[in-house]
Protein 1
Amino acid sequence: MCFGATCPNCSKQSWRGCGSHVPSVLSSVPEEDRCTCEPKFQAADGKEYPPQAGTGSPPPSSSKEDL
């Protein structure tokens, strides 16, 4: 069984568990509130979801620092 969890890397909503229930666990979580870490998890419904909490890595920063 899967359940909601907070990602320790990006502090957004992710999941823990077997992986079979990810779509239902994250169905009420808006896209902008979901974990942004990679690699993404592809569920049985064919959609991509955040990786299991604590197993992914934050994506590279898209912001450029001024030198």
Protein 2
Amino acid sequence: MTYFTKYLLVLVLLIFPLHILAQTIPLGSSLIANDETTPWLSQSGDFAFGFKKIQSQNQFLLCIYYAKIKDATIVWYANGGNLVPRGSIAELNPQKGLILRDPKGKMIIWSTGRIGSNVAYAVMNDTGNFVLVGVDSSVLWESFRYPTDTLMPTQILEINNKLVARKSESFFVPGRFYLRMLSDGNLVLVTQSKPTNFDYDAEYYNNEANSGYRLVFDEFGSVYILKRNNQRLVLTPPKVPSISENYHRLSLDFDGVLTHYYHPKSTGDQKWSTLWSLPDNICLAILDDVGSGVCGFNNVCNLGENQRPYCECPKGYSLIDPNNKYGSCKPKFVPSCDEFGQGNPEE
């Protein structure tokens, strides 16, 4: 590439926003929740916006996901993570933005909400950001402003915004763990037993930055808290795998661990690797009298690979829900309160 070509490319990027350079999705475009509908792809094909079937043959999630890797990892989802039936429709409307309708097309299940101006088109950007663009080329709505459980490079978590972990690996409704950027500038990880609770149960990580006002995931793959005096509290280790050769994401996993992952862009049977995570030991970090920790009641938390927890029922106990290994355990024996403690866990 010649010097003039490089200069011209930089000039074009400065003059035209990324959403203008990307492929546009025209008004009236729609997606149907089935096995045949082609998703809306970013220009490079790295990201897709569309319906993904989740376990059940007839239940789908409207989401953004990596389109070129084997497990098609989901990085954002609509409708509070609730699945919709086969035949549901997502359509681009000039007044209402993106609308998710029931299979009959009559009931609105979810939408991007009132956006204040007419939509001209939509774009699935190569950053993983889905954008609704107005007739004056302004950004009316973008998925980056409404994160679910994941941040992407070039994305910012502002004060009073949050990430919410999903309930389990394949159950996308809100779980118990939250990453919050507090109004006092502290970045915290907290638990909440029920999404309707006003107060949080326990705080299991606090960076104590105080003067911070946003969490930044920059274009080079570095994650830091930007302070009001423009100083940075960097969370990422000094060596970051090349962002041109690797996908990066920062996810609050269903087990409460905040993890920076990277994944080679090269083809082959590649997997996500962990660059760093918080807290160091979540089994010890959540010690509170209210509610349970990572594991359910009577379920013992252990630390495994990459600082990830796994749960085991004690001897003489079994899972209440055999399909939820992180859930609570019940005794196999009849508990006894007599003075000799005759209840026998082996019976």
